[in-house]
Structures are given as structure tokens and as C-alpha cells.
Design goal:
single chain, 174 residues, alpha+beta, FAS1 domain, 7-stranded mixed beta sheet, 7 strands
Length: 174
């Protein structure tokens, strides 16, 4: 089960990378000024950061890009490309397969909490109900915030429709 969840998370990141490559070529010079002035949503913010290509690819494969570009607000615990690379070899590729879409969506939605939960609020929690339906454990250990087995390495990346907290591992629903 953990391998499957890990695979799904990796797939989500791969989708984000695909999506970011597509998004980067869609705006002509006439729309670049307008796009630069508007606050970016969660997906566009992650893509612009450049370290969430696997997550972007997974979001694309899971059909979740439009959802995370929606009104929100959402709080996303976003694993980096390095976090996905920690998964067993072949996990991400397996999760990105169409026949594994349901597993991928389950893993990806476990990384999302409804509402905008800033770091100052996260540290007061012991758990958070995810969009997937399960609760992720939250703890402060040795001065570091942990979400399940992942360490939060960057907090409060504000977006037009929520907030991103960067994590160093893919987390999996129970």
C-alpha cells in the first residue's frame, strides 16, 4: 500500500511537470503583462517555482489541475521533485498510468487540506483532515513541523487560492 501511495504521489509530481511545460508556452507577449500582474493560483505558483515538475505531472495525470486552479482556498503540502525521487524506482511511472488514476488521486488529495492553513496555525494542530478523507498527523519535533513522515521545509507560500507548504517526502494515506 505504501508503494502504491508513493507511486501516486510521484505521478502527481510528474503531471505537474507536464502541465508546467504546457503552461509556459501558452501566453503570447500581449498576455504576459496581464499574467504577471495577477496573483498566481496554486498550480501556477508551483510550476513557476521549478522544483515541482513531478507533482505537476501527477496533477495532470490525476485530472486535478483545474481543481487546484479553482476558487479554493486550499492548503497543499507539496512534495518536491527530490521528495518524489526518494520513492522506489518505477513508483511514479506506475502511478501515472491511466489504470492507476484512482490510486494517484487518492495520494494527491491526501496532500491537500480544505481552507487556507498558514504555518502559525499548522503548528497548533495535531492532525488535519485532508481532501482525500483521512487525517494527516501533524507534530513539531525538534523544532521542525512534521506532516506524517515528511518535514515541512518551507512554509506560507501564498497563492491566489490558498497556500503551499513544501515537504521533503511524499505522504501516503492510511
Amino acid at each position: 500500500m505504501k508503494v502504491l501511495s508513493l507511486t501516486l504521489a510521484v505521478a502527481a509530481l510528474a503531471i505537474l511537470g507536464v502541465w508546467s511545460a504546457r503552461a509556459g508556452s501558452g501566453c503570447s507577449s500581449s498576455c504576459s503583462a496581464t499574467a504577471a500582474e495577477k496573483p498566481k493560483d496554486i498550480v501556477d505558483t508551483a510550476v513557476a517555482a521549478g522544483s515541482f515538475k513531478t507533482l505537476a505531472a501527477a496533477l495532470e495525470a490525476g485530472g486535478l489541475v483545474e481543481t487546484l486552479k479553482g476558487k479554493g482556498p486550499f492548503t497543499v503540502f507539496a512534495p518536491t521533485d527530490e521528495a518524489f525521487a526518494k520513492l522506489p524506482k518505477g513508483t511514479v511511472e506506475d502511478l501515472l498510468r491511466p489504470e492507476n488514476k484512482a490510486k494517484l488521486v487518492k495520494i494527491l488529495t491526501y496532500h491537500v487540506v480544505p481552507g487556507k492553513v498558514m504555518a502559525s496555525d499548522v503548528v497548533k494542530l495535531s492532525k488535519a483532515k485532508t481532501v482525500e478523507g483521512s487525517e494527516a498527523r501533524i507534530a513539531v519535533k525538534e523544532g521542525k513541523v512534521m506532516v506524517d513522515n515528511a518535514t515541512v521545509v518551507k512554509t506560507d507560500i501564498r497563492t491566489a487560492n490558498g497556500v503551499i507548504h513544501v515537504i521533503d517526502a511524499v505522504i501516503l494515506p492510511k
